[in-house]
Design brief:
The chain has 323 residues and is mainly alpha-helical. The protein has helices at 17-22, 27-56, 59-62, 65-94, 100-136, 146-164, 191-222, 231-258, 265-286, 290-299, 309-316, and strands at 175-179, 183-187. The chain has a two-stranded antiparallel sheet with strand order 1-2. Strand 1 and strand 2 form a beta hairpin. The longest helix is centred in the middle third of the chain and has 37 residues, at 100-136. It is found in: Membrane.
């Protein structure tokens, strides 16, 4: 699948934003982009696998609601990074973007990974707010059943799959395009598609989650809902850090990938790398959670202590939000 336009062919005075989106650099630059992305994606993929396996391997860690959220928050990152690594290796082997079907599939799995991750953050923020609000009011918390828990996660994943399929719906001015010759993503290509992209697609995957999460964090700070001490405070701070990573990593990624910034292909390559690094930073933060950290230490024979259960166990017993 050859690029439809090369940057060397562009007239810089008349080229439009849409031209710059799809125009490819030299083959050498494209190869460097795929090598960089495949390397980062492989590292992120392996880290996601280790984290998920660490949680599921222990009956204690996998029995906790918020650890289940971590698993299904990490899963889209792992899928996104694994498939991106495979795609990049195929492109490196072919010396160009490998296939039209691969283009559609990359667009879908990238969009799914973004959307599922962002909306899982929304779900976590909602559950966390319920926890803190009930604690501040002195209410007794009731555990959410596993059926309710997995139903909510199923809804998030189904929504992400639906939004990611918009490029396949002919009625929508929304298509998968080979951006810069290096990656296929949902993108704009004319005025109508620009309106749909920035006022339909982006709000659906990023805008609404961003507004909700910022609102939740603002309310928590203004109402002083963070406990002054104890396990609940630790858990709240841990997840607030994850939500901040969401804001710091995802928003710049979208901007770097889709905005022109002097038409620099390097900026777009860095935007793709930044979107994968989000997964790595999230995993690193998750490894600081005492029960996960302790279990991992035992697996690698770094500790003989019981684990972080005594640190976070009492909190986890009540963090399933009120039904």
């Amino acid at each position: 699948m050859d690029p439809i336009l090369r940057r060397s062919e562009l007239n810089t005075t008349t080229a439009t934003h849409y031209d710059w989106l799809v125009a490819a650099p030299s083959d050498e630059v494209m190869m460097k982009a795929w090598i960089i992305w495949s390397t980062i994606s492989t590292v992120v993929s392996l880290s996601c696998i280790i984290l998920i396996a660490s949680i599921l391997a222990s009956s204690r860690t996998r029995s906790k609601t918020f650890n289940i959220y971590i698993v299904f928050l990490t899963l889209p990152d792992g899928l996104f990074s694994t498939m991106c690594a495979v795609t990049c290796f195929q492109n490196i082997s072919a010396g160009k973007y490998h296939s039209t079907f691969g283009c559609q599939f990359q667009s879908w799995y990238s969009s799914f990974g973004w959307s599922a991750n962002m909306w899982m953050n929304v779900l976590i923020a909602h559950e966390l707010f319920g926890l803190l609000n009930n604690i501040s009011l002195g209410r007794r918390l009731k555990q959410r059943s596993n059926r309710q828990l997995f139903f909510l996660i199923f809804c998030v994943y189904t929504y992400a799959a639906f939004v990611s399929s918009w490029t396949l719906i002919d009625a929508f001015p929304h298509r998968a395009l080979l951006l810069g010759g290096i990656a296929c993503l949902p993108a704009e290509y004319d005025f109508n598609s620009t309106l749909f992209f920035w006022f339909g697609y982006i709000p659906a995957i990023l805008g609404i989650p961003l507004v909700y999460i910022v609102t939740i964090i603002t309310i928590v700070v203004r109402r002083h809902l963070l406990p002054s001490h104890g396990n609940s405070r630790y858990l709240a701070i841990f997840f607030v850090r994850l939500l901040i990573v969401f804001i710091v990593m995802w928003v710049p990624s979208i901007i770097l990938i889709y905005c022109d910034f002097g038409q620099s292909i390097g900026v777009r390559i860095w935007g793709g790398a930044w979107s994968h690094l989000q997964g790595l930073i999230s995993v690193i933060l998750c490894f600081t959670k005492p029960d996960i950290k302790a279990h991992l230490a035992r697996v690698f024979c770094l500790s003989n202590e019981v684990d972080g259960e005594t640190v976070v166990g009492t909190t986890e017993a009540v963090v399933r939000t009120k039904t």
